[in-house]
Amino acid sequence: MFNVDDVVQSKTGGPKMVVLEVKGDTLYCARVDDKEKKEIEVPTSSVNLYHEEGDFGVC
After folding, report:
1. Closest of 16, 53, 19, 50 to residue 31, by C-alpha
2. Per-residue pLDDT of the chain (59 residues; tens, 9 = 90+)
């Protein structure tokens, strides 16, 4: 369901994260605003693929 370089966000909100590695039901992610790419371990069940809300420039 998730792949390396996907952008995800916690189901409860919070910062966007990029997926660095996928191992079974665990994602290893880093916040997109973290230049050092500190790895965060999160279960796949706690995140969704990130998507923008609204019409962002669509005419």
Report:
1. 16
2. 899 999 999 999 999 999 999 999 999 999 999 999 999 999 999 999 998 776 555 55
